[in-house]
Structure formats: structure tokens, C-alpha cells
């Protein structure tokens, strides 16, 4: 056979340090014909060179045409990482929420950057990421775009040719090394700084699920992540009590929202449902008048939540709008959540419905022009309220930095008042385990009361 040879010589890896990128090039000869393969990091280059040396020392035949061992010969139906990632994303898309879709795209984009075979001819990093996030893992699935947009077409074609084969992730090939490279990339931001622990953990979970899917599809014999020891980043799991507003501070903030004219008056009850009823912002945005089970003239009322409208971005929703109506978080479609309405909130809601003529089936809260309440609208009002309502020292602290802190304040108040954890969990839409983990300091942190009890217990008895 004229197209194979055993005449192979592998040279030392060459290192070229450019102004922006250092390139590691593996050079070798097959039947006196020179070959080279550039890599972005030394570990990948060393692994590739070692594989060549191992094949040569075992006496394996090399292809004169490809310069690689015949055992590496890519079959016509071989699957590259890029092709596999497209298939994986398509399999997940119909069953994932918009926010989950975005998270999958972010993790796969980072992983792809770590699984490139070469940097030669690569498009700019920003173009590469745009091709992955906005077309490969989004537009292709959302809009059924068969071909990428013209400005991204060349980047997509380059990706089709320059990602590792899935077989390279097998344990007897480069699986552990490549898995380590991916984990290192997922643990860092684009600028090289360490990523938040929660972000790295979330992205690692996505990549792990992709590897399990590869095993399910018989593309891999074993998940390569199981061969790598990885220290899970520390993630803060308890609430930072500095963000929690006390009742006086919360009322000051609501008054400061009200003082912002007609626009502010429209948003007082919006923020109030987060503080008095522990609604998430996306639940408050979706709240309809028919969810208000009772608003009595006096005493407590009740509402029953059915949906939420989280802001995910137009690239990830089925409708192409920034928000899609979804089932309640952590609940199956059709499940509801009862929440008591504090008497002060009852008064605010009754006034809001009357003042703004809310129809029986209408949204409780809309923007100044009648559309959906946008993040930009309510965040602007909230930041202005903080500047007005809080003292300089309070404003400089994390106290109520975001409207979500009002929900934390509500749950903290309920727990501090002695409401059983199971009841608070039902009202807030948590599991009891998550509630006790996140709000542990609120449950066990009644410091002043604890100190008083200790003082009473240790006070000397009168003789």
C-alpha cells in the first residue's frame, strides 16, 4: 500500500510567543514529508505529541496522505464536538425554559473555545462567540434558520472543521486532558479572571450532562469528567443579612417610590407585593387581578399565583419576546401557590386597582405607556428611591440594592416572627431544605433575643 508508511519522526514542540497569543506547534515527518499542528496551550500540544510518539513506538502505520496514525483515521460518519453540541442543544431546547436555554448556550460556547484543534485562520473571538450563541445555540433552533447569517457564515464553517472529534474525549485518547481544559475554561471569565463559583458550577453541570448524553448516544464509552478530580468552587448558600431591609427602611423606600409622581404611584404596589407577599420580580410582573382571591375591607387577604414571566431575552423564548409566560419556579405546569396578603398590602392593592382602573382580567402592573412592566422602568425607579430614602451610610451598603431584596426581607420577617418553616416555604415557593439553608441566619440569628436569654440564664441568683 503506497499510502502508508512506518517511517515517522517526531520533533520537539516549538513555542512562538506573539504579542497576544502564544502558539505551541507540534512538528513531525511521515515518509520525509513534514507536518505541523499548532495549539493554543502547551498541555494540548504535549498530549498530541505524546500520542504521535506512542503510535510510532508501537509500530503503527501512518497515513502518507493525512500524516496521522491509521488508527486515528476519521471515519466518514465521525462526529466532531461542534456537530455533537448542535445535536445536544437541539435535544434540550424543547424541554428547557428560556433561562435554561441561555445557560446551556453560555456553557457550550465556553466549552467549544477549549475544544478547538487549531487557531489557524480562526475568526476573532467575539465573532466566534456570536456565531455560537446567536446562531448555533439560538437562532438555528428558535427560528429554524438552516443557514447562518452572512456575517457569521465563515465562522460557522471554520468551526465545522476545527473542533476535536468526540472520539478524542475517550479515556484512551485525550479524554482526561480535554476535560480538564474545558473545566479550566468554564471556571474563568472571558478576561481570564476567576468566574463566580455558582457560574462555574452551573456550567460544569451543563457540560457533564452533555457528556452523559454523548455516552447515551454511544459516542463515548465513559464520561471523561469522571476521570478528572475537580475542586468545586465555594458558593455562598446563606443570605447576606446586610441586604435585608427592616420594616422602617422598607416603608421609607415605598414612600420614596410614591413621591416620584404618577409613574411612582403606579409602582408602589408593584414593590409592595415583593415586600409584603415575598413575590419574585417575574411573579409581580405577571400578576393579574384575577389572582387576588380576596381583598377585604379589613384584615388579611389572599392571592393565588399561577404563572411568572422571567426576563430571559428574545433569543431564548419561543415567542421571540424578552419574556415568556412560564409555570411557577420549581413547580409543575398547573400548580399554584397561595400567599397571604398583609392588611397594609390589601389597602395598597385596593387603591391601585381603583386609581388605575384595572380590569377584572387585566395585569395589575403595567408600564407608563400601558405595556408590560420592564426591568428598565422599575429598576430606574428603585435606584432613585434608594438615593432618596436611605441615609448615606445605608445607601453605600448592600441594603436593598435590588428589588429582589424585598422578597428576602419578607421571608426574613416571617421567619423572625416565628412562622413555622414549612408554612413560610409554601408561601415563598421554596422547598423547606432550601429555605433553611438560605435563610439559616434568619431562623437561628435572633441575636438580641438570644443574648437576653443567655443573660437571664447566667444572672446571679439573689442570696
Automatic annotation (TrEMBL):
Gene3D superfamilies associated with the record: Intergrase catalytic core
PROSITE patterns for the chain: TYR_RECOMBINASE
InterPro entries according to UniProt: DNA_brk_join_enz, Integrase-like_cat_sf, Integrase_catalytic, Tyrosine_recombinase_XerCD
One Pfam family named in its UniProt record: Phage_integrase
Electron transport among keywords: no
Biased composition (Basic and acidic residues): 304-327
Domain Tyr recombinase residues, every copy: 240-453
Region (Disordered): 303-339
S-adenosyl-L-methionine found in the keyword field: no
Record key words, sorted: DNA recombination
Coiled coil segments of this chain: none
Annotated PANTHER family: PHAGE INTEGRASE-RELATED, PROPHAGE INTEGRASE INTD-RELATED
Protein name: Tyrosine-type recombinase/integrase
